[in-house]
Design a protein that fits this description.
Blueprint lengths: L4 E5 L3 H10 L4 E5 L11 H5 L9 H4 L5 E4 L3 E5 L4 E4 L6 E2 L2 E4 L3 E3 L7 H4 E3 L3 H10 L5 E5 L3 H13 L4 E5 L10 H13 L3 E3 L4 E5 L2 E4 L2 E4 L2 E4 L3 E3 L2 H5 L9 E2 L12 E3 L4 E2 L1 E2 L3 E2 L4 H15 L13 E5 L5 E6 L5 E6 L1 H19 L1
Parallel strand pairs: 1-2, 1-7, 2-3, 7-19, 9-16, 10-11, 10-16, 11-12, 18-20
Antiparallel strand pairs: 4-5, 5-6, 8-17, 13-14, 14-15, 21-22, 23-24, 24-25
Helix pairs in contact: 1-9
Length: 356
């Protein structure tokens, strides 16, 4: 043991993966308000009323020297190396900080979105709202990216008596290869999902959406348009990019405060030969694992990463596994049907074991 006190804030993919590895050797305090791990890549299942697969944080941390303080950070004092929390307790001092607060659904700048739209983080509320509806209606899912597609297909399959629409400012699944996008659109059509492309949402109200191409009526609106990093890094004074992600070096240390390691969606990481890494579980988990090894003395090498594939759930019986080059550009090869679904399921299950 080094005797250092290491604090990890955030219990997502990156934060838990870092804490469990550091906690084999050093004393760690994990700060997060949750008692259960939020398996974000399965939130679409929770929204549709499927059984949730969320282990307790205590179970993930079992056997490690990690104390979980169930609270939110209200202030990060970088100069004093202290954290102020909302639980009324004394500030926590640290020798090394692992910042892993990740990202959240963006869209707060769109009028009415905060008041009238359900984000993926509010999956449980959305599930209850659909269950309590007096009659089936229309659900408009805003966002043609991975989260929006998974939500739209899952909701359409689970609630065939509801009309599901997916509304996107760009092409739905437009970043995939032609084969991949064609499969996504075919599944959406088979499930009866109406696709509205090139329609940028300008406001949200209780009775639907307004876009730059006209009004779209809806009884429920689900917001999955984009993600943004938690603002605490910028507010505290860490060096950040224009979009609010912390600037880091090759060892994922803050360029302005090297005693702070930043992992997951909060970090602006660029890997030689690959380029900037996108937000998501696929990059967050390896970053957390790497910093855990680094701070426990099991590696001194810079962080390295290569992409292999992207995958989407498309309801219970379908999926898309899109193979990509190391820089995340599309290959032509895809897996669909039962094989795609099995591959996706195995990857999602492996994430939980990867936390430890």
């Amino acid at each position: 043991m080094s005797g250092k006190h290491i604090v990890v804030i955030g219990a997502g993919y990156a934060g838990l993966a870092a804490a469990t590895r550091i906690g084999r050797r050093d004393r760690v305090t994990l700060i997060a308000p949750e008692t259960r791990f939020q398996h974000r890549v399965r939130q679409h299942e929770a929204a549709a009323g499927r059984p949730e697969h969320r282990p307790t944080i205590a179970d993930v941390l079992r056997g490690r020297q990690v104390t979980h303080r169930q609270a939110r950070v209200t202030e990060l004092d970088l100069e004093a190396r202290k954290l102020h929390l909302d639980d009324g307790g004394a500030p926590i001092a640290y020798d090394t900080l692992v910042y892993a607060l990740g990202s959240r659904t963006a869209g707060r700048d769109v009028p009415g979105a905060a008041e009238h739209a359900y984000s993926a983080e509010r999956a449980a509320e959305l599930r209850e709202r659909i269950a309590q509806a007096p009659a089936p209606g229309t659900v408009a899912v805003v966002g043609g990216g991975a989260t929006g597609i998974e939500l739209a297909t899952e909701l359409a399959e689970a609630h065939p008596d509801w009309q599901v629409r997916i509304v996107s400012a760009d092409r739905v699944g437009g970043w995939f290869s032609p084969r991949g996008r064609a499969h996504v659109l075919a599944v959406l059509a088979r499930l009866g999902v109406r696709v509205d492309e090139h329609a940028r949402v300008t406001s949200v109200s209780a009775d639907g959406l307004r876009t730059d191409t006209g009004r779209i009526p809806a009884d429920l609106v689900v917001w999955a348009a984009s993600m943004e990093p938690h603002p605490l890094a910028a507010e505290a004074g860490l060096a950040v990019t224009p979009d609010g992600r912390a600037r880091v070096d090759g060892h994922l240390r803050s360029l302005s405060h090297p005693e702070v390691h930043v992992v997951g969606d909060a970090a602006a990481v660029e890997v030689p030969g690959v380029g900037p890494l996108r937000m998501g579980c696929v990059t967050a988990l390896p970053m957390g694992q790497y910093v855990g090894r680094l701070l426990s003395g099991r590696t001194t090498r810079p962080f390295d990463f290569r992409f292999l594939l992207q995958c989407l759930s498309l309801g219970r019986g379908e999926a898309l596994v899109q193979f990509v080059r190391p820089d995340d550009s599309m290959r032509s090869a895809v897996l669909t049907g039962a094989l795609g679904r099995l591959t996706k399921a195995l990857i999602v299950r492996a994430v939980i074991s990867g936390l430890r």
